[in-house]
Design a protein that fits this description.
This protein is an alpha/beta fold and about 575 residues long. It has 4 domains: about 15-245, Rossmann fold (3-Layer(aba) Sandwich); about 260-305, no CATH class; about 315-395, Arc Repressor Mutant, subunit A, CATH 1.10.10; about 410-569, no CATH class. About 45% of the residues lie in helices and about 15% in strands. Strands 11-14-15-16-17-18 form a 6-stranded mixed sheet. The chain has a 5-stranded parallel sheet with strand order 2-3-4-1-5, sandwiched between helices. The chain has a 3-stranded antiparallel sheet with strand order 8-10-9, with helices on one face. α8 runs parallel beside α10 (about 195-210), α9 runs antiparallel to α10 and α14 (about 315-325) packs across α18. It is elongated.
Amino acid sequence: MIFLLRIALGNDIFLNYIAESDVYVDKTLFIKDIIDSTIQVSLITRPRRFGKTLNMTMLKAYFEKTNEDYSSISSVFSNLKISTCGEKYKKEMNKYAIIFMTLKEVKYSTWEKCFSALKLKISEVFSYHKVILNSLDTYDQDFYYSILSGKADESDFASSIGKLIKWLGKYYKEKVILLIDEYDAPINEGYTRGYYDESIDFIKNLFGGAMKTNEGLKKAVLTGVTRIAGRSLFSEMNNFRSYNVLSEEYSEYFGFTEDEVKQVLEQCKVEHDFEEIKSWYNGYTFGKSISIYNPWSIMNVAYEKNQRLAPHWTNTASNSILKDHLANKSIETKESLYSLINGKSLKLPLRTEVTFNDLIKESDALWSFLLYAGYLTATNIREDFATFNIPNYEVKRELKTVIDLWLTEQSGGISAVTMMLNAMLTGNQELFTDKLSKFVHSSFSYFDTTGTEPELVYHAFILGLLVHLQKDYYFNSNGESGNGRADIMIMPLVGNYKTSAVILEFKKTRDIKKLDEVAQTAINQIKEKRYIDEARKRGSKNIYIYGIGFYKKEIKVLMENFHNHELTK
């Protein structure tokens, strides 16, 4: 009989996971570092699916004073790294009252529904600790019951966790540990759904009451994807520190190191080529040098054994935020994004924190948002700049999907985009003109075509659509070629069976009657400046050149075809 290792995939409750899984990557030294830390309130931000909830429930399991036999909890940790750290750390086990909440599922369409879910979360915490009820005076008991029943008003719910910490401290004669997992989920959802102000105001009051100068609080540990600093959410806390993906502290506890990945794959007898796994799921840099793999994806590979590698990571909330902000970003920002998708590394501005207001007002805030959300990684950090790149193939696919979805939503759907691109690649001038014209009229309300450089608007829009061609084509924006710079060049990848190349040049006019003239000027420029040289060097048999003239949203497209180096029309 072949013994199959159990993997409790998706189970992020530590004690349940340990009981139900034969594969565990030991992160228990995280407990030691929390004990050793002198910081009272710690916020640790990591991308989605990087083990935040499992680690938080591990802290709960270790520290929590329960009615269970001490030896049963001790036995869970007896073969794990924390058990080797000495008596100082063993004494902290099973010692404290724990208030634990995870907010990752508090994602609703309206503030009323969101607040109802938050009330339920708080009521569940009060129910969990109702053993203290008889120790309270009548007034406090009435308050306790109003929270349990959900009848308390918003201000009472906002102050409730702070009160509970004080009561638990008095009851157990020991300070309390507060653990809040995915604290920013309702805030992020509020931003995308239109109730950001209500959500952040409530969370600020809830946290302030619980963590600001609360004598009953031993420590608080929070996790999330980002630090929301725009409304000073944590500014009133005296002993607070946040740790993001750039921080050295805790860098090895969220995600898998390469040695840990090899351990899991060997234990589960996964036979995939390791370099292929690395290209799919590695590439994150946490702290100064720790190279990290996506743990959720690795555990899926181990669970699925030797099935074909596939994407497992997605970041739904951040995807929505990214889509919302793409239209507002500058042309230069969009072009940088396309360059990153094409595998380039770029030196770009870096922010230690990002607010939603930053995302609206500052184009360069996008890079730091993408970094903290898990789409990018940063190296060579120098003051306010860093070298950014997409960490791996899985994330590249996810980011491409987000951009594809946004563009196709603005462009009539994937079939319409495919039809237009195929027309362009095969020299079907009439169909290409028809589809491009429809896209311009339906989509360019999202773009500014009346500014000082409207060519770049068309330029960026086409570049975005070209993401669809990545598997078969290389494309370059304003790349050096011949005696000048072509607006966009699309060439088959080396060794690809597709042999057509495309060169596009955009020209504006302030007189709609001169559309034909400027389109012809664009064609002449492509030929005179020998933009076709690079396509010829790559062996392209067909080179389609397009001159695109435009007046606001009105366009004229001319096309000529170089075939075997002979010009035909």
